[in-house]
């Protein structure tokens, strides 16, 4: 069975597991009289609100989203002694209370026309299930962890509770990673990358529930506000990071169009080269990150042409002499590096003016991204963005420089990705 | 061999500014020492030496690791010194707070200019001591039997607000003196950009206090409360990252102009700086100051078009290239200023204030360039400034907004163009 088969079957499995947890909890709660006795109603209401707000205010970590406030609120409900005689709620009660908040949030999301994200809600419920079951069944010194924690030293209790929470959050993350696992990338490295990406936020989520449980006996329901406050700060930081990334993306896109608007290049040249590079990069099995860098290099490879008071014919840098090509690339790098382009991207732009033979004959290091960019740029310069008959003429012209000017692997990839679809 | 130095009005003014700045820094440092002694006498010595040592070490580490995280190009806002100072007050006693503040500042010895170091150390001692005194004053009003969490929260909350105010005033004052700009504009700008982060740090400090003493974590709070501290610091660093992304976008555009024409790049840079200076002089909010700097950079972008190889400084521009830049969300805010820049002040409807500022800045720099070319004497710059100002003043109320022209005159008097 391939990784893709596992991935295809995993979404229903995750939703199924969450449904099973919900059903079992519902039945158990019903059999026990369907009652919910709590000593601190305000605490439950605040935790419930945190879950609802958390499900409405999700944050994205690249391909996956998470709801830190909802996770922290659920974990706090699971670990804090708010039941009769300072006991914790029963497992079924925790699940039912959390489900109530989740359903309310999903209803609001539906009313607002936002996506429900059933996969991610299910993954969170599975993670919560793991924490609830572990915390009520594991024992230390012959006593359930939660009972032991009430007498232990603060730091010992915190360590034990954080471990319970971290286990649940790790299961949630693993579930997500499996759903998005691609065959080309090792699962272990993907999990590692996801853990790094979650970083401070994941750690803050794992700490929040246990800290609420430990602060609540001292500060009461305000413990939720106190502990979840820094988490909200981190989420605000994430939002800001999204805005920062948008600024970088928009800046690169706008700079890439600068030469179109100023009349130096044919309209859409940079975008077409970037699309072509992206297709060729995937064809040559580059990683997603490498393809992203390649795309940025392609978008900005010609921006240096703004220095020209007399534009090149058709904006085709392939027609310029080598010195001019290097000057244009140099100016592109000067402009791009100010906009935050990474070193690899700048290197790709600089090296894209070099002939392939330097690598073959003298062992010079020319990055694959640069070789792809050189071929894709030549193709678009020669076709002017038109397909059809010009495609074969352009390919023929590029093949004349095969092995001398252009990398044969890249030219093959170009031929494959520009092949007209059947019919 | 001797070298002759010519004392010009410019260098004399620079010397006077430097002396005033040094005097202010010395005053702040002295005040820091005095207030630290006062808080020690009022509240007694630090109550927990271990906590004090740990907090000083953390403040020093935070100070060393601090990434440059500038707010409006002036102030670093990446350390969590405020958080640690606020935590020190209830955990180690009010007298410990100035020591923690000093620890954070002195950790940068060797990597920070001496004047800046002395100012930072003095300023942190001042704000920590004032916060400590406020804390003592509030708790003194609490009934002896009810020094509850609520009273501590109130005391810390008030201390944070006062600390934020003092920080804005002291930093705003030193910048206003050294850069010869308005104190009000600097202080308001700082308050609007650092106010929320300060409150956030105060909030986290209170959480850490609750963990440290009432819950009983003790020094291990710094481990278990670590994610909260990191989240606060990370959130602050994101603020700087966004600022850097914006500055990077503008720098890229300035470089694009520079590779085309050095003269145009100089003009662009001067207009952007003057726009910013006028906005600060008019006490505009921080986001409008940033927007005007952006407008200053963008106003000359059409020089890049191929059919306008020697286009003159935004005159008669069709804004094609500039409009394209409007796709960048944060640059789009500058569009009204650019589109209304050539509309006279007396026209109805009148152009927005941002356009009026850009018009004055652009035309003043243009006029100054013309006059500077004509003059070659040592103080030509000063005379060109005055001649260019006369051109602008002559059209005040018709072409130009009088309030902006007045701000320009004030800036020129301070030698800030």
Written overview of the protein:
The complex is a heterodimer of chains A (423) and B (417). In chain A, 72% of the residues lie in helices and 2% in strands. Chain A is mainly α and 423 residues long. Chain A has two domains: 3-245, no CATH class; 262-417, Hypothetical protein af1432. Chain A has a two-stranded antiparallel sheet with strand order 1-2. Chain A has a two-stranded antiparallel sheet with strand order 3-4. In chain A, strand 3 (139-140) and strand 4 form a beta hairpin. In chain A, helix 11 crosses helix 13. Chain A is elongated and about 85 Å long. Chain B is mainly alpha-helical. Chain B folds into two domains: 11-242, Orthogonal Bundle (Arp2/3 complex 21 kDa subunit ARPC3); 261-413, Hypothetical protein af1432. In chain B, 72% of the residues lie in helices and 1% in strands. Chain B has 17 helices and two strands. Chain B has helices at 9-43, 49-65, 81-92, 96-106, 114-141, 149-179, 183-212, 221-224, 226-260, 262-281, 286-298, 320-325, 329-332, 335-340, 353-374, 380-394, 402-413; strands spanning 70-71, 75-76. Chain B has a two-stranded antiparallel ribbon with strand order 1-2. In chain B, helix 2 (49-65) packs antiparallel against helix 3 (81-92) and helix 10 (262-281) packs antiparallel against helix 11. Chain B is elongated, with a radius of gyration of 25 Å. Chain B starts with 8 loop residues before the first helix and ends with a helix. Residues 1-6, 67-78 and 309-317 of chain B have low confidence and may be disordered. Classes of the chains: A mainly alpha (423), B mainly alpha (417). The interface between A and B is large, with 60 and 57 residues.
Question: Which features would summarize this protein structure in a list?
Answer:
A: 423 residues; mainly alpha; Hypothetical protein af1432; two-stranded antiparallel sheet; elongated; B: 417 residues; Arp2/3 complex 21 kDa subunit ARPC3; 2 domains
